[in-house]
Every structure is written in C-alpha cells, then in structure tokens.
C-alpha cells in the first residue's frame, strides 16, 4: 500500500467570543481514503468545512470550529472526519446487530440521496415531511402504514376493478396520499432503534420525539445546531449539496455494511 501523503496544516482549535485564542500546527493525511470514507482533501473540496455566519452561531458547536473567516464559522475538518468515522462505525455496529434504522432528511439537498439509497437497501426513510407522532404515537401510525400496504396489494391484485371508475379514482388518490406520507415506512417492523438525521435544527420534531422515546440519534449538525441529545455528532455544512451528498453517502454505506454483517450472522 502506498504511503499516505502528509501535509502540514494550521489548526486553530479554540474560539472564544468569536476570536481565535489558540493555534497549533498538526500533521494530517490529506489524500488517502480510509474504509471508503472521504479524505480531508475531498471534504475540503466539497465545502464540508463551511458553517454558518457568526450571527447564527450556537456556542455548543464551538468545539468543532477552528476559525472565523469573513464572518463565517469554519469547521475543523480533522475533528469532522474523526466524528464521521466514529458515527459510521456506530451505525454499522448497531445495524449489524439487527437493529432497524430510520433515515430522515427533508431538505432538498439530502432528500434525493436518502430516498435512493434507502430504497436500494430496503431501509425506512422520511424525505417529505416529518409524520407527527411517528415515535410518540407509533401504534396509530402503524395502522395507517398497514392500510397503505393492504391497499397496494389490492391494487396490484386487481381487486379494486369491481368498483366504479369514480370509486377507483378516489381509492387511488387515497393510496397516493398515504404513499406520500408513509411510503418510506412500509418496511419498518416497529419503532426504529436508531435514527440518522440531516439538520436536526430543521427536523426539531423528529429530535424531540426520538429523545422522548430514548431512540439514539446520529446527525449532521451545522454550526447553528444544537448537539445535545445526539449520540454521534457529525459537525459539517448541512446546506451545500456536495457536502450533504458526501456525508449522507458515507453514512448509508455504513448502514449497508451493517446489513451485510447482520446477514452473515444469520447465515
């Protein structure tokens, strides 16, 4: 294996009241991928390091910020990558134990990638809007998911052909509505044991419900976010398309690895 190329990088590691008060030089790997995860160079090129403006700063995220440039907080990519490695390992381990995971990302930057990857793997997801009461009123939500499953089976079997055209149109509209709301939950057997969220600030209801039901959360958190209640924080830009796609893809690969591990255990 080729030796990793190393670059000397100035890491400003402490920010107090918007000012850098401590700097140190560290050596970091910039070109070699580890376990298929993006390298620091790739993360830099994707804009993963850009946070929000200082005006939107959440002090609880300061430990992941190393600088402020032109009024914008800049994430310490060394810490971000370390957090990503830990988050992916955690996800693979939990999914590998047979625990179900729910992927949540309703903002446009994340929705398409999450839906495509989740459908490919057969994992539950939400990409349109959070279903209120999904965790706190699961029993009721499950009846609606079951209704959707039953309607799809009947449509596929042609059982609705006995109804008038008008009735069929109404039934189809009802099924489409249920599909939009609950389509990503069809494969969920019960409450998920783990949730992955893109932008918990946006998905605040999902965060609150997960906390209420003591469901562990792994999340991509920007510099304006609140990391409390999240077991594995991935501090990063959750707005830029390239950044979000890169990080979501890394986490979904971890999910896939966990699914394979679980399958091997059952074999």
Structure at a glance:
The protein is α/β, with parallel strands linked by helices and 267 residues long. The chain has helices at residues 40-45, 77-96, 108-121, 138-157, 165-182, 204-212, 241-266, and strands at residues 6-16, 19-29, 50-53, 65-69, 72-75, 101-104, 124-126, 194-198, 217-221, 232-235.
List keywords for this structure.
single chain, 267 residues, alpha/beta, Rossmann fold, 3 domains, 5-stranded parallel β-sheet, 3-stranded antiparallel β-sheet, 7 helices, 21% strand, elongated, disordered N terminus
Would you mind describing this structure in some detail?
- With 267 residues, the protein is α/β, with parallel strands linked by helices.
- The protein folds into 3 domains: 6-76, no CATH class; 83-137 and 184-266, Glucose-6-phosphate isomerase like protein, domain 1 (Rossmann fold, 3-Layer(aba) Sandwich), CATH 3.40.50; 138-183.
- Helix content is 42%, strand content 21%.
- The protein has a 5-stranded parallel sheet with strand order 7-6-8-9-10, with helices on both faces. It has a 3-stranded antiparallel sheet with strand order 3-5-4.
- Strand 8, helix 6 and strand 9 (217-221) form a beta-alpha-beta unit.
- The longest helix has 26 residues, at 241-266.
The N- and C-terminal alpha carbons lie at a distance of 32 Å
Helix content class: 40-55%
What string, H for helix and E for strand, traces the elements in order?
A: EEHEEEHEHEHHEHEEH
Content-based structural category = alpha/beta
What is the level 1 CATH name of the largest domain? Alpha Beta
Strand and helix map with partners:
Blueprint: E1 6-16, E2 19-29, H1 40-45, E3 50-53, E4 65-69, E5 72-75, H2 77-96, E6 101-104, H3 108-121, E7 124-126, H4 138-157, H5 165-182, E8 194-198, H6 204-212, E9 217-221, E10 232-235, H7 241-266
Helix pairs in contact: 2-7, 3-7, 4-5
């Amino acid at each position: 294996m080729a030796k990793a190329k190393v670059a000397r990088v100035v890491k400003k590691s402490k920010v107090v009241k918007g000012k850098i008060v401590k700097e140190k030089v560290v050596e970091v790997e910039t070109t070699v991928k580890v376990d298929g995860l993006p390298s620091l160079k790739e993360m830099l090129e994707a804009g993963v390091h850009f946070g929000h403006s200082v005006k939107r700063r959440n002090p609880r995220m300061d430990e992941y910020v190393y600088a402020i440039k032109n009024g914008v907080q800049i994430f310490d990519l060394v810490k971000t990558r370390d957090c990503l490695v830990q988050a992916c390992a955690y996800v693979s381990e939990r999914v590998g134990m047979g625990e179900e995971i729910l992927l949540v990302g309703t903002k446009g930057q994340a929705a398409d990638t999450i839906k495509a990857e989740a459908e490919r793997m057969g994992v539950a997801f939400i990409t349109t809007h959070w279903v209120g009461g999904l965790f706190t009123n699961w029993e009721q939500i499950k009846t609606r998911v079951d209704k959707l499953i039953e309607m799809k089976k009947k449509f596929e079997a042609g059982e609705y052909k006995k109804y008038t055209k008008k009735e069929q149109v109404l039934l189809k509209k009802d099924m489409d509505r249920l599909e939009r709301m609950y389509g990503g939950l069809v494969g969920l057997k019960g409450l998920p044991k783990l949730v992955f969220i893109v932008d918990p600030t946006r998905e605040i209801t999902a965060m609150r419900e997960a906390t209420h039901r003591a469901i562990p959360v792994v999340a991509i958190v920007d510099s304006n976010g609140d990391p409390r209640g999240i077991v594995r924080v991935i501090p990063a830009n959750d707005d830029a398309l390239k950044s979000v796609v890169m990080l979501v893809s890394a986490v979904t690969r971890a999910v896939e690895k966990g699914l394979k591990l679980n399958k091997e255990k059952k074999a």
